[in-house]
Every structure is written in structure tokens, then in C-alpha cells.
Amino acid sequence: xxxxxxxxxxxxxxxxxxxxxxxxxxxxxxxxxxxxxxxxxxxxxxxxxxxxxxxxxxxxxxxxxxxxxxxxxxxxxxxxxxxxxxxxxxxxxxxxxxxxxxxxxxxxxxxxxxxxxxxxxxxxxxxxxxxxxxxxxxxxxxxxxxxxxxxxxxxxxxxxxxxxxxxxxxxxxxxxxxxxxxxxxxxxxxxxxxxxxxxxxxxxxxxxxxxxxxxxxxxxxxxxxxxxxxxxxxxxxxxxxxxxxxxxxxxxxxxxxxxxxxxxxxxxxxxxxxxxxxxxxxxxxxxxxxxxxxxxxxxxxxxxxxxxxxxxxxxxxxxxxxxxxxxxxxxxxxxxxxxxxxxxxxxxxxxxxxxxxxxxxxxxxxxxxxxxxxxxxxxxxxxxxxxxxxxxxxxxxxxxxxxxxxxxxxxxxxxxxxxxxxxxxxxxxxxxxxxxxxxxxxxxxxxxxxxxxxxxxxxxxxxxxxxxxxxx
Length: 472
Known about the structure:
The protein is an alpha/beta fold. It has helices at residues 39-42, 66-69, 72-77, 88-115, 129-136, 224-237, 251-264, 278-289, 319-323, 346-353, 372-377, 408-416, 432-445; strands at residues 3-7, 19-23, 26-30, 58-60, 84-86, 139-141, 148-150, 153-159, 167-175, 178-184, 207-211, 241-245, 273-276, 313-316, 332-336, 360-363, 382-385, 388-391, 395-398, 424-428, 450-452, 459-463, 467-470. The strands form 4 sheets. It has an 8-stranded mixed sheet. Strands 7-8-9-10-11-20-21 form a 7-stranded mixed sheet, covered by helices on one side.
């Protein structure tokens, strides 16, 4: 009877989450994400994984974001034939995210070939839209708090509060004459945020695999509305165009909701809001279908649910609708994907708006190392896009209050729960500085726990009487 846990992504980085749990003969992959950001990480997306996809019994998905799901088309291409389990809302969102990610790659490859700026002749997409749909045919949905079996193990989803459908994955696996329980946080949401529900308490477990995206940070304690008004009111009054690069799933909907509420309250001037992302428009409709259920915050139930399609918000779906924004002067707000400025329509807006010091670029999510968003945060004076370098003279601000990730205090609060921290904690999905800081914090808050900081492709074995031991 053996239990092994290997970290083939989301270790030493916030992207590419792939946690391989081996319970006796059963291999279960928790999340299956793409690497993003640094080139040396992105190149690994093209490699055959360090495990055999055909040997994986099942994939269990915590939530729909591409850094947790984007490798699924490649996994299926490379031999995986089993089920992909997730919540119903996650399945709905993946039907937009995976084909959209494929289309972006196909469009970027075609654009690079037309312009001739790629080193590869020809430039090729990582996967195609057909690949994405083949992966989606493997999806099976399971409701929250419902046990299902994967081989000899039992699995269930509990609300994580990060985005619509996001889940903590609880696994009860056989060990000797008994069992051991593991919990995988996925991306953990925050408490008392609009739109999304709070995370459920941490499940009682022996081992916790915990995200650490903001393991070295405490979010701005000022209310979210105050943060937005502080940064955007005066520029909008002066006629600025505010560009908000945003994840199409969850973040774009939250940003639009909050901005409209602030405008209605008179805290921001009445300006047009443009949501320029086909996927964000489609995902907003998906959110609307879940408004009366338990997956979203009860504060938006009933009549207020109409605010997800609020007045004076224009939804841009086609390319021509997007291009029309080029001829519109400020003041106005443009929300466009992608949130880390890795591709998509937002780059064309950035190329146009960044050189003008009157404009504002407002970042509303975590920016991993190697992304254009991180470079902007670090004060880059030029940003490389579409084969050229473009000046950045616009004011760059960070609105951390929009973050859907728990900060250090919230991660510790959640992990310790009502019954104390688990015996063993693995810190994943974080950059090294964040992991180190959170590990130090746990040494004070939960000295009885053993805390591990796995590196990429590290594997651990659960040895009876000795606990987790690093294999490599």
C-alpha cells in the first residue's frame, strides 16, 4: 500500500498546476494547467510530461482557469483516455476557456506567420480548437459535497470561493488497514468579497496541498470601492481612458459589477464601460444562469442580479466591434483579456493607450514573473508586443482589492480552521519568496505541522510511521 505525491507544475511558480497522486495502482491527476510567464516555463508546455498520460486513471479539476486546465487538450492528445471530473459550473466555464485558448494560439500563430516575426517557420499553436473539444468530451460533472470513486479512493468537492464553480478537492485514499485524507485547496478565495461565496472551512485532513500565490502579502485593508475611487476618479474626471487587463472568467464580471455600483453611487463619474472580450461576454451570461443558486454570493440574488448586465456597459464580441474602440476618446473604461497581458485583444489596446501619459493601466490580478503585467508593475518603460517595443508612459496602478486569491492572513486562517492545522502541509502554486514567507508564518501559527516547499517535479512518498519522505 503506497501513497505518492508528485508536483509536476505549480511548484516554485504560480502556473501549470499538476499534482499527481498515486494511491496503490491508481494515478489521479489533480489539475492539469498550462505554464505561463517565464519562457523557460512556457517551453515545458511543448514537452511530453514526466508521467505517462495513458496511465492516469482520472483528472480532478479544482477550477476552470487555464493555469489549472489548459494542458488538458495536450494530455488527451498524448494518450489520456479517462474521465475529467469537475463541478457543473467549472464544466460550463471550461467550454469557453479551452476553445478560446486554442483560438488565441491559432490566431497568434497566424499573425506571427503573416508578420514574419516568429523564430519558428511556420509558427504553430500549442493545441487547436479541435483538440480542446476532444478534451471536453472526457468531462464528467459532480456536485459539491458528493463523494465519487476513482479506483480505490473517494473524492469530493467543497466550495473554494475563488471563482464560479471553484472547489477544494478532498481525497480519501487507502493506506494500510485504514485510510489517509488529503485536501487540495486549488486557488482559495477571499472572505466577504462581492459576487463569489466564501470558501468552506478546510476539510479535516491529514495532508493539505495549499496555494501560496499571496503567501508573502497582505491585501490592502481599505474597502475595495475606496481603492478603486482613489486610483481612478481623478483620471476619469480629466478625460483618461482606463485600460483594465482582466481575466475573462470571474474578474471581468467582478470589475464591471463594482465599477457600475461606484458610478451609480456617484463615487466615480458617469463614463462608458466597454467589455471587450468575446469570452468575457459569454462567461457573463453563464454567471447570470447561476445567480439564483448557491454558487454565487446571496447579496446579488433577486433584482440586483441584473447588475451583471448593467446599464452603460457595452459588450464587444466581434473584431469590428473591438476595432471601433480605437476611434473613441476618453473618458471611458475598457476591460479586456488577458489579465496577465499574455495575448488577446488587450495587447492592441495596450499598444495604442500605453504611450499616452493621460491614460491609466489598472492591473486587477496577480502578475507572474515573466509576464507583461509583471514588467509593467516593475516600471518597464517599454513593452514588447507583436515583434516591436512600445513606450509605456501611461500611469500603471495595481488594484489588489480585486484579487480573488486569499492573502497570507487568510491562507493561515483557513488552513488552521476550527480543529487546527493539518499534520502535513505542502505549499504550492506560489513563487519562491511567497512560499518561503508563508512557511515561516506557519512555523509560528502551526508549529505542530510539518510544512514542505516542493520544487518542480519533486515526488514524496508517505511512509507509515515516518510520514512524507522526499523521493527526488
